[in-house]
Each structure stands twice: as C-alpha cells, then as structure tokens.
Write a structure and sequence with these properties.
heterodimer; A: about 290 residues; alpha+beta; Uridine Diphospho-n-acetylenolpyruvylglucosamine Reductase, domain 2; Enolase-like, domain 1; 3 domains; five-stranded antiparallel beta sheet; 12 helices; 14 strands; B: about 775 residues; Aldehyde Oxidoreductase, domain 3; Aldehyde Oxidoreductase, domain 4; five-stranded mixed beta sheet
C-alpha cells in the first residue's frame, strides 16, 4: 500500500492550477486535504500522472456570512466550520451536520471542496449541498460557472466537473432565523460513513404550518437525494407526531436502497425512515422517546 | 549504593517501567530497525481463493529498475519447507501444514506466490503489478458442508474434514433419554481476529562468514521459531538469532511462524543484503491468522427443578486453508470449555476441524473459550426461561461448589490429559458479580421498554485454563556496575512484564526494581524459552524469575563468602549487599568488581517446571439498552469479576481486563472478516473491518479477586490476561436476549451488528433457527 511513482506540483495561483489541469488533460488530480485521495492512491485505485497541490492557493478558505447566505471557500476545512462561532446561528444545520464528519484528525485536514469533488454517496457535505439548494462555484479554462447543488453530483464519485475545472466555493442560501431543522445520522461507530442520514428543514407559515420543506437523505447507493414525496406530504401541514409517522412511512417507501456488506437494503430502508422521523421530531421540537409510564 | 526496601512490591500497582519509553516515543518497533544497504520486500499474494497455478511471468517485473530479486516456489529448495505445528500436533493434521510459498496450488486469497526485493517498498509493489499470473480456478470451499461439492483443498486426502474426534464422560445417552427437559440449539461465532495496532514485520540480516542470521521482529515464541527456521534452513540453531523489539500488540496472532518468517530470511540471503518487510494493513487482514469462526450444535438435559444432567455438543471449527502452528487449538478449546464451571455428570463432545479456502486460523486471546462460553451460556438462559427459573438461580443450582474441587471434567481431547479444575469459590465470584451489577434491583428494568429502548441484563460464568507448561527459564547476571540483568524466556507483548518480573525479583532479593534490567531481546541469551501465550508469562515465566532470584541470592552469598572469608551460614543478603552476623558487608557492585576476568560475570539460571494448567474463573454481567428502530445496542454497564489467584500488579491486571473487554465487545458487535461465495475477503481495510475505538465502550468495570491461590506455582497466580475476554459474547448475548424477551428474539450468531439486531426484532421468521 505504497503510492505509485507520480509527480507533484504546488501552483501559486488559481490560473496556474487551471493551466496545469488543461495541460494534463484529465491525468492530474487536485489534492487539498488528501483525506480520501491519499488512501485511494495507496490502494492503487488511482494512478494520476501528477498531484496538483491546491492547499495553499490564496483566498479559497474563507467563510463569508452575508445577507445572501453563507459562502464557503473550497479549502474550508471541517474544523474551520466547527470552530466558526457565527455559523452556529447563520447556518445551524451546516454546523450540526459537520460534527458527524469522520474524526478529529480528518476534520483538521479534510476540505468541503474535496468532499464535494470526491462525492462519496455516504458523505454529509454533498447531502447538505443537495438538500440546501447550494450553488457550487466552479473555475475552469472557460472561466467561472455556477452549478446548482442538485445538479452537481451525478452519481457515486461522479460529478459534473470537467477535467479542466475545480471547485472554488459553495454558496448556501440565506437561513431564516426561525427555520425549523433537524439532522440525524446513523453509523456503526462515531465518525464512520453514514449508513443512513436525514437532513430536514422547513419554514413556518403564519398558521404554524410547514412551508417549503426540504427532506434530504443519505443511504441511496449513488448519491444523497431529496424525497419529493415526503416534501409534498409535509407542505402546508402542522408537523406533529402523526404527520411525522406518515413521513417516516413514505420516506421509507420512497428510498431506493441496495445491499452492502454492513447494511442489507431492507434494513437501510427502515433506517432511513427512522432518521427522517428523528430529524423531523427534532425540527418540530418534539420529544423523541416518550418516557415510559 | 543505598538500598532500603521493606514493603513488598508484589501486589502493588507500581507504574509500568516500560511506559516512559513508550510515552516518550523511544519505543523501537521492527519498522524502526534500519541497516545500511537495507532493501525492502513486498509479497505477491493470491487473489484467487482456490486454483492451480499455470504460469508466473516475471520478465516485465524483473526488467524494472531497482528490483533486486523475485523469489517464487521455483527458487526455494525442494521439497518446499512446510510450517510445523507448535501446539496440538496431531498426526491427522500432517497433510494440511502450510508450505512457505504456493507452488502448484493456491488455497486462499492472500497466500504468498512471490517475494519481490527492491530498493523501496513502492518499487516492489510496482513490480508486483507487473507480474503476470495465470491461475485455473477451482471451486472454492467456504461453507460448513465442506465435502458436499467434491472439490478438495488437498486432493490426496479426499476430504476437507481434517479432524473429527469424540469424547464423553458419564452416560450422556442415558441422561438425555431420561431427562425431564432437553433443548438443542445451533450457534455460530463469526470469523474475526486480533488486528493489533502494529502489523507484523521482519528485518533479516545475514553474515555469511558464519553463516549467521539476525532476524528482527520476533515475538511470542522466538525460540520455537528459531528451531523451526534452523531446521528448514539446515543450519544449527545457534546460527540464528531471533531478536525481539517492541511490539504494538500480539493477542495471539503476532509471533507465530508464518510463511514470511522463512521467505524474508531466504530473500535476504539471496540478495546478500539486509531485507525489511513490513506488513501493510491489507496484507495483515488476509495474511495474519484469522480466528474464532467456530459453530456448535449444543443440547442440554435438565431435571424440572433445574439440575443439569447432560450436555452434548458438536463443535465445528473453520480452520481456513492450512493448519498453521496452533494446530487445532481453537475448536479443541471450544470443545473443552463447553461444559464450563458447572457440575454436569454426562457430557458428550464431538469436535470437527474443517478446511476451507480462507486465511488459516490461529489463536486469538481466549481461543475457543470466547466461543464455547457464548454457546453454553446462551443455552442456559434459554433453558432457564423454559423451566421458569431465574437465570441466576439456575446457575446457582449448577455451579460447582468449592467442596467439590478439584473437579475433573475428564478427558476432553485425544491429545490432552484429564482436565481438573483446581481451586476456587465459583459461587463467591458469581455472587460478587450479581451484587456489582445489582441483579436484584435490575429485575425492574429486565425486558422493559424504557425511553424507547429495551433494557436487559445478562450474566455468564466461566472457567478457563492458563499457565501452560512444561517449563520456562530465566538467567540472572550480575553486571560489572552492580546491576542485575534478568534474561527471560517470556516474550513482551504489552503485558507489562518488564514491570511485573522486576516486582517479583525485587521482593525475592529485597532490592529495588531500578536495580534490574529485563532482557527478552534475543534468543542468544538463553538456551530455550517457551514464550508468551496461554496466560503463562507470570505463572510460568514469573515463577522461573522467582527461582532464578533465589538461586542468584545463593550464588551471591557464595561469592561473598569467599571474598569476606566467612562461612555461608553467617551471611545474609540484605539491602543489595551481603552482610555477616559480625557486621562485615559487601555490596553487589563490589562483588561484581571483584570478579577475575576469567570468571566472567556471575550468572545463574532459573527454571520452573509445571505440568498442570491453572484454572481462573469468574462471572461477567452486562446491562444493555437496545434501540428497536436502529438495532443499536448500547452497553450501559459491564462488570467482569475474575479470581486471578494473585495479582502481581493490580493496575496491570485491571488494564489487561479492560483491554480484553473492549476487544471482546469488538468481537460481539463489530469485528467481522466477511467472505463472499467465491471466498474473496471483503473486509481488507479498516474501512470495512470495524474495530472498537476508545470511545465505543466507556462503561466497563473489572473486579479482580484473589480468593484462592493456584496450587501449581509458588506465586499462586492464575491467568489474568484472557479472562476479560472469554465470557463477553455470552454475557452480552444474554443481555440482548433478556432485553428482547418480549419479541422472543434470541441471539444465536455474532456479530450483533445493528442490522442483525434489527432483523431479530423485525424479521423473527428470517432469524429463527
């Protein structure tokens, strides 16, 4: 499990990086935190000609909070998010979900851009991008373009990035202070990849009914998805235990799961239902477990 | 030097002397051993579980710059050496010994086919990628029904059942024929293994003028390995020096003789340079011994009032593709410990060792015991429930009483003498555990749904052997500076032996631990040593240290008598000096300094011989909460009570117990070597092979009792390193069964992964036997 021979370069600017990507025609890999890439190289699952180290590119690790929302530079680490005091109110869902990403050592190095570009179907960050309708800012030979979050991840470890492109930032829409939200994840051990997770949020209309609910799940084999059936169910409803029970059942039914060595498909479906239920209970401020008589 | 020491150290929690070295980063592991000109080896391992090797094409790999040699079976002297058995060397196993490299056939994924020696490990792996290998696939054997397909790992034997034996005591058929109640169940413990933090590794360096070999990276049983390697290489044992450096965990799997223990020295000699091989994690998970993977069909017979009258068991161990050094220990021990600490007059045990196309199996902390206790204790809980008897009361009725000891369970394997439980108060340890877990108080939560989770408490009692003979040795050497070096035949695998041996020697000689240096580093120090396994290092190794200390005192007095011109009878060894009744005194350093050059250093050999194992025993209790929606089991409280006879260092005993509990809980919930139908290993990295981490099981307690000394050794010690492991699956299985009693769920197989527990609750038909 030693890396094959490869070249390494650390460009100083974004333009140089793009030029290198163009020059290597898909045979280069960008490395920032390296938390997924380096094990893949060691296992020799990948054999790029060159690693382009973008970890010191200037201006790509800022967290900007403004009226339009939260902008994360691609090099923002999980630790940066975790320790950012203002994010806890500016985007509480983001801060809460990131606490489930891996372990300390990995959170110190892993970046949001790397996670999104890698797009493991069990990762939290692509699920957030999808569920929150975030915009992905991409630079390439043709300049800047913005990809809608729901269109960025195409499948397991497959994105709409072109070989000459890199992610430079992710923009999360503004988060109303009164928004209700919940995040629930289930993994074998703390920090492991999620077997299932639910990302939920909705606003309340004047009558206390759910408006514009977003229900995203981790647990499908290709990528995190939003469950329109559950969102339709919740729209305009007061979120109580009965509605949540219904949402759980519909979510369980809607989720498309498959077997892996730790997770039979049927169990994973049920787990997704449970995660939706628990995230919605949190969002609605309901006690998860009724106290025994 | 001023030495005053009056308080005995044995029995105190002295801080570990080795820890300063480890904590300050001065530990030296085999990957730290580097020599000038050293090359690196990587091993091409079979990616096919069962097949015939048709062709190995090496040209492209050999053409790569930086490659010094590629060794295949064609380069090894014929017949290709096969790895001898160290334990349970039954003749039935003879056809199944592992050759050090695959020649005609491959029999498991991970079997060595070629060794590449290169300037760097990365280059060696590049070359491996260029080796062309053609294998004709044969049907792989992976199921328990090993002979069904007619495909045989070893065609000449015509079977994949390597061993079947049967033992019985009393009249089991009569007992079952007349029983008020019987129940028969089948259980299975999944394949898993130790996976120590440090993988294996070796560094071989030859000096052709001898020729002599220095082989770094030995552990556990270096003297056996030296003997085996010398025989394979046709050299006298004294030409080989096996060197132990620090290790990051052994747990049974490290240090046994593996193919690499021949291949790396062979390759180093071939290239004429030192060669280092450091196993990577992927290799480790397919090359280092697997373990467990034992199933059993067990049947119990009882009277209505709960007296067990009979026990039958058929135990089947999946041995993998070869019988390695540990022979049949794993299934044999599972058969042996099936009866446990209970009075059962009529017992019938059959043991089968099955050959499959998987990595060979060896011993892992608590071999056979972890399995047997799960099988029996689960069945006891089921029987107690059927009979309407409280599980604790059921055990009270049947636990052997002290006045029945020594208690012989008879001959439990063809190669073993009668097993005779020695000393103990099984009931006292049992009641202590119930008190600790508050068994009576917990009745209120048993099986109840509380805050959305089912709560349950389970108990399990065990007895297990340790302290294997027949001997261990030590050598005390008075160094020139007055320090005492104690060379030992025991191996240091993280058990804190540098500390505990020093404590024993310190008390025996009444000099402080700082006066000793424990030397386990090389097979050059002693003629022989048996090493560290079967919880024997304190019992046998510590007793050899004690013997050596006593002889050392006599030798020092003898030397002082000559120097002081006084008869031995007038001299005493006190405070690091020999003093006479009349007040004359000579210190150890003065005695050392007075040696004539021709005399060499003052040294004496200690030895301890023993032909009986010790039997430690105890009871564990687990309190769990089961989330029915996710299948997650949380261990809310866990108590392990064990009578260790005598704790040399209670802190170390406790650390060993807690470590063993966590490992055991890993085996219950996480660790699982999964194969597919083609016998491909699906868990070849830590992303898929899950182990417990420091945060997974925070609520564990161990209580080490010193109720009854062991009669086999002067220290009175019983094994203390494995008891923390052996009833863990049993106790947790019973706790989960108790928690889920309202769903009728009964754990019969491990691991209790969330999906399996969920399935027990929600798919009872799918999980019924």
């Amino acid at each position: 499990m030693k890396l094959p021979d490869l070249d390494y370069i650390r460009p100083g600017t974004l333009q140089e990086t793009i030029d290198l990507l163009v020059a290597y025609e898909g045979e280069a890999k960008l490395v920032a935190g390296g938390q997924s890439l380096m094990p893949m190289l060691a296992f020799r699952l990948l054999a790029p000609k060159i690693l382009i180290d973008i970890s010191r590119l200037p201006g790509l690790n800022a967290i900007d909070i403004g009226p339009d929302g939260v902008r994360l530079g691609a090099l923002t680490t999980w630790r940066d998010i975790e320790r950012h005091a203002a994010l806890k109110t500016a985007h509480p869902l983001l801060a809460a979900a990131i606490a489930h990403v891996a372990h300390y050592q990995i959170r110190n190095r892993g970046t949001v851009g790397g996670s999104l570009a890698h797009s493991d179907p069990a990762s939290e960050f692509p699920a957030l991008v999808t569920t929150c309708d975030a915009d992905v800012v991409v630079h390439g030979a043709g300049g800047e373009r913005v990809v809608k979050g729901s269109e960025f991840v195409l499948g397991a470890m497959t994105t709409s990035l072109e070989p000459d492109e890199m992610i430079t930032g992710i923009r999360f829409p503004a988060w109303p202070a009164a928004r209700r939200w919940g995040f629930e994840e289930f993994a074998r051990r703390r920090g492991d990849f999620a077997m299932a997770a639910a990302v939920v949020f909705y606003d309340l209309d004047a009558g206390g009914r759910a408006a514009d609910p977003h229900i995203g799940i981790i647990g499908e084999p290709e990528r995190a998805v939003r469950l329109a059936a559950v969102e339709d169910l919740l729209t305009g409803r007061v979120i109580d235990r009965d509605v949540i029970a219904e949402a759980r059942a519909i979510g369980e039914q809607a989720a498309q799961t498959s077997d892996d060595i730790h997770t039979p498909a049927k169990y994973r479906k049920a787990l997704i239902g449970t995660m939706i239920e628990r995230a919605l209970m949190t969002a609605a401020g309901l006690e998860l477990r009724p106290v025994a008589a | 030097m001023t030495i005053v020491q009056n308080t005995p150290l044995v029995g105190t929690s002295l801080e570990r002397l080795e820890d300063e070295r480890f904590l300050s980063g001065r530990g030296q592991y085999v990957a730290d051993v580097r020599k000038a000109g050293m090359l690196h080896a990587a091993i091409l391992r079979s990616s096919v579980a069962h097949g015939r090797i048709v062709r190995i094409g090496l040209d492209a790999a050999r053409a790569l710059p930086g490659i010094h040699a590629i060794v295949t079976a064609a380069d090894i002297p014929q017949p290709i050496p096969r790895i001898p058995l160290r334990l349970v060397p039954l003749p039935e196993f003879a056809p199944y010994h592992q050759p050090v490299i695959a020649s005609a056939k491959v029999r498991y994924v991970g079997e060595p086919i070629a060794v590449v020696v290169a300037d760097s490990r990365a280059l060696a792996e590049d070359a491996i990628d260029l080796i062309e290998i053609e294998i004709d696939n044969l049907p792989p054997i992976g199921d328990r029904d090993v002979d069904a397909s007619g495909s045989f790992l070893f065609e000449e034997t015509g079977t994949n059942i390597a061993l079947r034996y049967h033992t019985a005591s009393g009249d089991p058929d009569g007992a079952f024929a007349t029983a008020d109640y019987t129940r028969r169940e089948t259980f299975q413990i999944q394949r898993h293994t130790a996976a120590p933090m440090e993988t294996r590794g070796l560094m071989a360096q030859w000096d052709e003028s001898g020729p002599t070999l220095k082989l770094y990276g030995a552990a556990k049983v270096p003297y056996f390995n030296r003997r085996a390697l010398a025989a394979m290489m046709n050299l006298p044992e004294t030409s080989l020096e096996l060197i132990e450096v620090d290790v990051g965990g052994g747990f049974g799997v490290r240090g046994e003789f593996y193919p690499e223990d021949y291949l790396i020295p062979f390759a180093a000699r071939l290239v004429g340079k030192p060669v280092s091989w450091i196993e990577d994690r992927r290799e480790h998970l397919m090359a280092t011994n697997h373990s467990r993977d034992v199933g059993a069909t067990v049947e119990i017979a009882c009277t209505k009032d709960g007296t067990i009258t009979g026990l039958r068991g058929e135990v089947f161990g999946d041995m993998g593709a070869y019988i390695r050094t540990n022979g049949g220990v794993v299934p044999t021990a599972a058969g042996m410990f099936l009866q446990g600490p209970y009075r059962i007059a009529n017992v019938d045990i059959t043991v089968l060792a099955l050959m499959t196309n998987k990595t060979p199996v060896g011993t892992y902390r608590g071999p056979g015991r972890f399995e047997a206790n799960f099988f029996r204790e689960r069945l006891l809980d089921m029987a107690a429930a059927d009979l309407g008897i409280d599980p604790a009361e059921f055990r009270r009725i049947n636990l052997i009483r002290e006045d029945e000891l020594p208690y012989s369970i008879g001959k439990r394997a063809p190669h073993l003498p009668d097993a005779v439980y020695d000393t103990g108060d099984y009931h006292a340890a049992f009641e202590r555990c119930l008190t600790e877990i508050d068994w009576t108080g917990k009745a209120a939560v048993q099986g109840r749904l509380i805050d959305g989770r089912y709560h349950g408490v389970g108990i399990a009692s065990f007895v297990e052997s340790g302290g294997a003979g027949p001997k261990e040795t030590s050598r005390f050497v008075l160094e020139k500076d007055g320090m005492v070096t104690i060379a030992v035949g025991s191996s240091m695998l993280g058990q804190g032996l540098e500390t505990t041996f020093s404590q024993i020697a310190s008390d025996a000689l009444n000099i402080p631990v700082s006066a000793f240096r424990i030397d386990h580093g090389s097979t050059a120090r002693l003629a022989d040593g048996l090493g560290s396994y079967h919880g024997r290092s304190i019992i046998v190794g510590g007793s050899a240290v004690l013997d050596g200390a006593e002889k050392f005192r006599t030798a020092v007095i003898e030397a002082a008598a000559n120097l002081l011109g006084r008869p031995n009878a007038e001299l005493r060894f006190e405070n690091g000096a020999v003093v006479s009744d009349a007040g004359a005194s000579i210190s150890l350093s003065q005695i050392a300094a007075s040696r004539r050059p021709d005399d060499g250093l003052l040294s004496v050999d200690g030895i301890f011989l023993v032909n009986k194992p010790t039997y430690s025993y105890g009871t564990h209790a687990a309190y769990v909460a089961v989330d029915p929606d996710t299948g997650r089991v949380e261990v809310l409280d866990y108590v392990a009570v064990e009578d260790v006879g005598r704790a040399i260092n209670p802190m170390i005993v406790s650390g060993q117990a807690i470590g063993a509990l966590v490992q055991g809980l890993g085996g219950v919930f996480l660790d699982h070597l999964i194969y597919d139908e083609q016998c491909q290993l699906l868990t070849a990295s830590f992303a898929d092979y899950l182990m417990p981490t420091a945060t997974d099981f925070p609520s564990l307690r161990s209580v080490a009792l010193e109720l009854r000394l062991s009669p086999t050794n002067p220290l009175g010690a019983k094994s203390a390193g494995e008891g923390g492991m052996v009833p863990v699956a049993a106790a947790v299985g019973n706790a989960v069964g108790a928690a889920l009693q309202s769903c009728g769920a009964q754990p019969r197989t491990l691991p209790l992964s969330p999906s399996k527990v969920w399935s027990l609750i929600h798919e009872p038909a799918a999980t019924a036997p």
